[in-house]
Amino acid sequence: MSTSMRVVELVRFGAADAAFVTRELPRPTPGPGQVLVRVLATSVNPLDLQTRRGDYRDQVALPAVIGNDVSGVVVETGPGAGDFQPGDEVWYLAPVFAGQGTYAEFHVVDQALVDHKPARLSHVEAAGLALVGVTAWEALVERAGVRAGERVLVHGGAGGVGSAAVQVAGALGAEVLTTARERDHEFVTGLGADVAIDFSAGDYVPQVRELGGVDVVLDTVGGDTLARSPEVLADRGRVVSIVDTPEPQNMLAAWGVNATYHFLFVSPGRAKLQALGRLVDQGRLRPVIGAVLPLADIAQAHTLLEGGSAGEGRGRPRGKIAVAVHPLDEPPHRTTP
Ligand SMILES: NC(=O)c1ccc[n+]([C@@H]2O[C@H](COP(=O)([O-])OP(=O)(O)OC[C@H]3O[C@@H](n4cnc5c(N)ncnc54)[C@H](OP(=O)(O)O)[C@@H]3O)[C@@H](O)[C@H]2O)c1
Fold it and tell me: Where's the Enoyl reductase (ER) domain (predicted)?
């Protein structure tokens, strides 16, 4: 068995076309409590673009293998890693800014962060769901504590996190309002949104207020959207913000509605994957894959994600941009029934 592996390294911060180099590196060995996974698919997220551009240069020393989504197969288990056997199909969110990333043929991870892949998902679909799904779950369930019958506003419902969050909020029994361009309204209502508001055609605030406001805002945009959240919140409403913003925010209005704010940087974990897997099994959550590229074309995957707004004929495809790493022994993407 070969002891090396192919990885794509980030060697230069900046434009995608000069940022990556394919290299052979020694294959990692699983330590205590860890498993070695053959990565079949990963995906690109805005975090990858931000890292490549140098936004996190304090945390990422070059050269670096980046990427955080994995769907693949366990090939070796370390001492004490008895939860999995070689051959198990698994998916997970790899720790952010810790250890080797997932633009690689193999990846070592603590078994506590790993779950069995939902059988209904292809590897490409699972890789496209891990980071965004875990983020949506952590935001809506662990932070906001969304309850059945509550009203939730998900910003950017046609995006990666938003499309997962619309479905998760609906599965929790919430009434879901979401902001999306008009051309995406059919798409987001197809995901279960009760109300779609075009953020590009006017101010969403009066529209949400007219509908009676919301108990929870999931802010996937930041800036003004974060600052204005109290204007649409019911008393004792909750806001979960996932986008850090360097501009000072005026939070004065938050006192007026006794708001609770949660600032979230997603963390990996098996329990969240299991919860998402149950929703997948029940047919209440399906990942949306817009494109699948091979690992060798990672720069193109970045360019595609960066290419402006998502949606038909508008720069980038709607849905996640997944990356096939090993040749997959299945159709790269199948539609979830
Ligand atoms: N803190 C965390 O742990 C965490 C985790 C995951 C993601 N994030 C961050 O969350 C953000 C979203 O991630 P993503 O993967 O969902 O990105 P994405 O797939 O690019 O989706 C962003 C969505 O927001 C929409 N949008 C743009 N401007 C908007 C506005 N003013 N109001 C409402 N919607 C708007 C976009 O619509 P168009 O495409 O039509 O423009 C798109 O559908 C990124 O900044 C990412 O870095 C943070």
Answer: 14-323
pLDDT digits (tens, 9 = 90+) for 159-198: 999 999 999 999 999 999 999 999 999 999 999 999 999 9
Q: Which atom of ligand 1 is nearest to the CA of 204?
A: 32
Strands 320-324 and 34-44 come out as antiparallel
Percent of the chain beyond pLDDT 90?
89
Q: How far is CA 133 from the centre of its chain?
A: 6
**CATH superfamily for domain 146-263:** NAD(P)-binding Rossmann-like Domain (3.40.50.720)
- Residue 121 Cβ inside 6 Å of ligand 1? The answer reads no
CATH superfamily, domain 4-129+267-324, is: Medium-chain alcohol dehydrogenases, catalytic domain (3.90.180.10)
Tens-place pLDDT, residues 249-276: 888 899 999 999 999 999 999 999 999 9
Place of tokens 């990942």: 287
pLDDT digit string, tens, across residues 206-249: 999 999 999 999 999 999 999 999 999 999 999 999 998 888 88
The pLDDT value given to residue 51: 98
Q: Where are the alpha helices (DSSP H) in the chain?
A: 46-53, 123-137, 160-171, 185-190, 204-210, 224-227, 252-256, 270-281, 298-306
Ligand 1 atom 20: residue of nearest CA: 159
